[in-house]
């Protein structure tokens, strides 16, 4: 069989490329990174947001769309075989805001995926705030129980549950990435543990679309940081190996600010100050 | 110390009684059972529903209220030190129905609990449909991951996440009971494993309000059935020991209907036919 | 739905009965017990052995057949929708004996099951000697690793592996029962932990054929003995609850014989003296 | 083999009886119970304490001895093939008191056991205070980590470590019983979970001396109480099945005293008020 | 002690070398690799196969021998203190072929090892097909249960069971290596996860013979591939750290062939197409 | 928030430095290493031992003090906000020696810490001999049960228990490091698995004092050796990543001495010859 497989090398083929990759929330920080660096994954990028997306470049298609608009989302998703779902509310907010963007928005997205002519593979930008109330001295893996630290975190638990249901019921595959802190560099000592470099994020998304069978994994989105709370061994099958480490920023951080004291929420909880914040009133 | 404690027996005191126990969904099947049998837990029962609740009996107070009405729920919860939350949508339904009753409804309830002058202890009627896609040959406990089998199941995962967050953030204690099939008797062979007798439900609720410290447990709501998928050992501290068993109905069931075939969803999945049902269109 | 189900009671049906149940090794001790007490499970019993089976009673069919005879086994299994496989070598023996009866015999049985016009559900009489080298101070469940204590034990690991493969590949369901010591009463102190009453064995087999979906479970075949090494919680879904206990024989045993000393294989290993025995030379 | 074993019944023998059973701390509450009810286990009881032990009854031998006296303990243990070690300091105390009785005392006891002409089997009265800082909402088993709640608890962790070392190094077998609350009846609501009846204690000790191979188990000493934190499944091989339950005292307790509030150490920690107590100054 | 150990450095000794290392299946692909690269482990290599082995080189001894020939195997093994057992049937085949080579063959080998004048340490070439029916989204370690994907896989479970029994009963140490895909390079996308380089295989065998105490470990034989299903942490004591990775071949593979689709057995099961193949008829 | 944090960079601050770091056992081998290399962690080093400490260098303070002297230890600890506790008996010894240095000594240290005007963070030099009776084929992590191999090992279990109690009760944070073999290089083959380089020890201590919240972790003190028994994943949050490996010494060791035979305690037990040694008589 090995021999036979090797005989086929004369007929050179390209790795499977997506036809149309939708990026929601494309005007945001991570959206812009993905827009700039995921073009090679698909014949076309469809970019969506309700904020300004500038001009469409070659191979791009721009659709303005609010996620809470069911019919618009139906049209948005139609024909996409890949989705990187970064859209929605990206931090704590009053309930009404969270519900529109992250509750209704997610349901609209998956209903559209179910009814689309092609079944997309989905990257869902979940968050460490789905497990934020675990203490920093605890080690988590994909089987750890959720402990959301606010409405935002609750909405991410909701999104992961929707993804699980559409996978079990309709075979739609989703990678839920519990993103730590995806910035150019860590902005405080807690982020030395949660930091995810843009490069590692991009590498992860590339793997999600390259692996023949995705399933419905939960992945902690952090670089190969020295001080770590999260163990991705349950998803080693994806072949994602983060290459960056926050350690290169430690000296600079130490020179810039005091580390939090031992009882500061930024030292106690994985979700940091989200855990000590109250409810955002609408 | 033992001696000292025993010396106090001359001064006879009553076990701690609730002041006002709210039962939501009080006109429903389980609501009626609770209305009839939980009166001894509290000085007053406050009964709520949007359907007819008949006349208030002695010690009862009746409030008509839709759970999606934030202000009405705020008033409903005010002053209650116990809540048995049976209200909301109790089976699969179109998304809009689920969202109003089980998503907004839950947020309204917990926000009201947070703002109330007394902090209530809450029983949340969760459901086996939060874990419905696990196969019947699997054994689950409180740490098993959720696998909801529809919008209804997803809304129960959401409710448990809200309860977890309000416990971690504000100390509100909730018992989430993943109710199996709470009927006078099992209606099919799958229910031989999921059946929860009314008596065992009442015993469980009594324990939830009796235990000095509740925490935020997840409990599988099934009687002591012979064929069982669920293991409540993580919550043995509650002291709930179900007394009934579905086995007494097996012969009658066998005489009444064929057991499902091996590939029937009622034989494959813990959630039964919810798993094979499609999405309820609105 | 409950109501609807109950309305069907006028049309009384019988529980699903097997058409033809094959019992191999039917002349042996357990075979005789099953012959006498499993008749109600099937329209017909097909009894097989290479030793004398006496006269066929009503509803019985007798087939003399060596398990190492591939063609004969093919014919034997044909048309049976249930098999209780007690045949083969039932204790340690030289390799050639074990191989013919328990290695070739098992392969012949499953190949026949695969090729039969109906797919049978199978009870496989595995043995505690598949895990015999675990110490008596260890607690095992269905996930514990195998530690066979001789060729006999190795052949049982083999049989369980064959059952697993035919389940994964062809959907044939098998209950592998790791039988402890199935006798009228325990014959020594070790058997106080391993004893399985005939009644509990029969109850287990009845459950195996009654459960709508069997899967491919591994079950420890022991009664509800006080001193126990084995935990069947992974297979609680079967609804088997042993009713007997070896404790009723303890006083008699104590009066009859000394318990083993602490370093006696009967006190050290779950497999008892099988662990200290050498290889049986052929 | 079964047949052979049964043929031996004409030669009736007695169950193995100890020659000399030492009970330390024999003048204390549990010591008195054991003195009165363990006589049948041995030809002779050797009773030891530094407080008054009254007159020796038939089959009894009385030795006054402080556990911190190495030579006296050597003599005390000499010739005993069983020890129930209840001696030492039985509640929190200043360090010097704990050290003499529970640190030096334990070392003296095991050194004497090692040097004795017969190797005794030992029951070590450990305590729930070895794990007292676990919360009451946690379920523990024999593998849970220790969390002592004071010097007394630390001394029990020490004793269990000594027992483990002498077992691994010299083969001396010890049953460490983490006694909950061994009183005639529970004296407060926490004890509804920790209560161990005298009868269940005696049954456990009898099993420890009856089992052919003991090993070095850790057993939670609590009756079959409804509300339970402790899971003894790892030591099911001992065959100890507690028969009593604290539930029969609940109504009386409820009538006698208020349950603790949710933040009372008696409601939060398994060790109760030991956890909130400070260090006992010497 | 450290000082004393260091004082001995004047007396330079060689690391312990095997006297005679038997390689079975020495004419095969892996056999040839081992023949060429393991010579330094032993004073002599004894090479065995039933196919042509060419001329014996210096330090080599050639023995033609079928594994199913009990007496010949007895002679073959005699005097060897190391065995690398690569012989037998190396892929799926009809039952009769598997049985002769991999069932009888293994029993003959271990019986010969038991009766030999020196007790050999053994490397057993087990296979990923012993666990082939696990899905590729699952992470396995040495404690995962076996799920063989055909007669070949079943024979490997059998071999591991025989190794376990001879270790427990007679102290013969075996390293069972569940070889993934040991080729010069991966031949398809599944092999990006299962690939084992020749260099890493040799490193592993060297460690097996170097470690002072081997025990009876199960090791997954895969290089340090990026996308991995197998976790060797239970056998970190061996000190084997694979150095190669299949990642260097990914681009070439992607250029050569399409990855399998999501429902292709090569994307679903760890055993790949072995899982979808039927039984090989004899 | 990120932006805000970055704006603070104009105000450059130093990383939090200790005021006074106490090193006990400062004249010993590890004490000397720490004395020479931890000066940068604190404004002042207070060095303590009962053996000669030479002259105080700049920034050093020398205090002669026996750990068994309660009042002296009280004074010694006063005012220190960091302690590296290397003092006490560092290998097996008669009980009286162990008790004075490692039992009383530890209690004195923690009582002094509790009563000090500042609460110190503590590094406790525990030992692999706390778990020495585990076999070398077992993998341990922070949750594995203790199996001490002598009085020395028992005293380390005691010290860890004291640390746990003072953390739970008074919030004093301790890092218990189960040091393997901390020498310039491994002195025998067992130490290839247990070796901890001086550099890695220093890196670990630096991390213990740098991490904002320490908790009360148990860390295995071994370098990144190829052959390893210990898994520090539970304490990955500390950010300690050992950089050295014993592998660089293997060839030299192999040339110097024979590896132990398979039944040598140095090959069987993690604690090596401590396990086969008897009790040290006083």
Report on this structure.
Chains A, B, C, D, E, F: InterPro entries: Epimerase_deHydtase, NAD(P)-bd_dom_sf. 6 copies of one chain form a homohexamer. With 282 residues, chain A is of the alpha/beta class. Chain A has a single domain, classed as 3-Layer(aba) Sandwich (Rossmann fold). In chain A, 33% of the residues lie in helices and 15% in strands. Chain A has a 7-stranded parallel beta sheet with strand order 3-2-1-4-5-6-7, sandwiched between helices. The longest helix of chain A has 21 residues, at 95-115. Chain D binds chain F through residues 95, 99, 103-104, 107, 111, 114, 133, 143, 145-151, 153-154, 157-158, 161-162, 164-165, 168-169, 275, 278-279, and chain F through 95, 99, 103-104, 107, 111, 114, 133, 143, 145-151, 153-154, 157-158, 161-162, 164-165, 168-169, 275, 278-279.
- Oligomerization state of this entry? homohexamer
Can you list the strand order of the major beta sheet of chain A? 3-2-1-4-5-6-7
Please identify, by name, the CATH architecture of chain A. 3-Layer(aba) Sandwich
Query: Which range does the strand content of chain A fall in?
Result: 5-15%
> What distance lies between the first and last C-alpha atoms of chain A, to the nearest angstrom?
64 Å
Question: What is the H-and-E element order of chain A?
Answer: HEHEEHEHEHEHHEHH
Structural class of chain A: alpha/beta
In round numbers, the mean pLDDT of chain A is 94
Largest interface: B-C, 33 and 27 residues
Considering DSSP H and I runs of 4 or more, what fraction of the residues of chain A is helical? Answer: 25-40%
The CATH superfamily of chain A appears as: NAD(P)-binding Rossmann-like Domain
CATH top level of chain A is Alpha Beta
**Globular, elongated, flat, extended or rod-shaped: what is the shape of chain A?**
globular
Organism (chains A, B, C, D, E, F): Sedimentitalea xiamensis
Domain NAD-dependent epimerase/dehydratase (chains A, B, C, D, E, F): 22-183
Keywords (chains A, B, C, D, E, F): Carbohydrate metabolism, NADP
Protein name (chains A, B, C, D, E, F): NAD(P)-dependent oxidoreductase
